[in-house]
Design goal:
This protein is an alpha+beta fold. It contains 5 helices and 3 strands; from the N terminus they run H-H-E-H-H-H-E-E. Helix 1 runs antiparallel to helix 2 and helix 3 packs across helix 4.
Length: 214
Amino acid sequence: MSDAAQPTAAEVRAAAEAVKTALDRHLQAVESREGDDDPAVYEAFNALAAAAEAYDERLYDRYDEVTPFEIPGAEDSLPPYAGPEEPHALSVLIRRDYAVVEPQRLLAQAQRIADVEADEDGPEAAAVVGGSTHAAIGVLFGEYEPDEIASRHKEFGLEEGDSTLWVSAAEEPSEPGEWLDAPFEQADPERIVCRFDVSAVFDDEPSDEDGGRG
């Protein structure tokens, strides 16, 4: 970078002050958070990451020096938003990973559901599960909403893994059946309004933000 393009000392100082302000706001948001996915914490986290990155760049450009800290997820943040300013439709994309840690518990829960259906629909319904974990998973997710499974996963012999939720903006709602053949194909990162990530990897990072963007 040429000398003419270098930031001034005052600009570096202003970037440092912005980091201090962002740190205070992040701490305030964490202290008053409401639930694991509080959007105020998410927004403060992103503001802190952006301020730290800007300071680091100006510090390096001016003094050829870097900061000794790193905001988790700053390098993998979403690209700049390029979607509609006033979206008329939203798509919510969710991925939740589970490990089947107690297959017998999963089978027992699914069999209980099948037994209830057998009482209502006849004995053939009880044969759906048998001893198949594959069939048991189908019964379980056919009976309960995904949010209920997430809140009761231990009852079903499951262990939570990573999860992510993306909120994507669109100009207009999709036509019925339009995307059913490829539901995740149009997940454009530049149309993501916000995302929330949960991962055990954040437990190893020096951050109070467990549910921020990864």
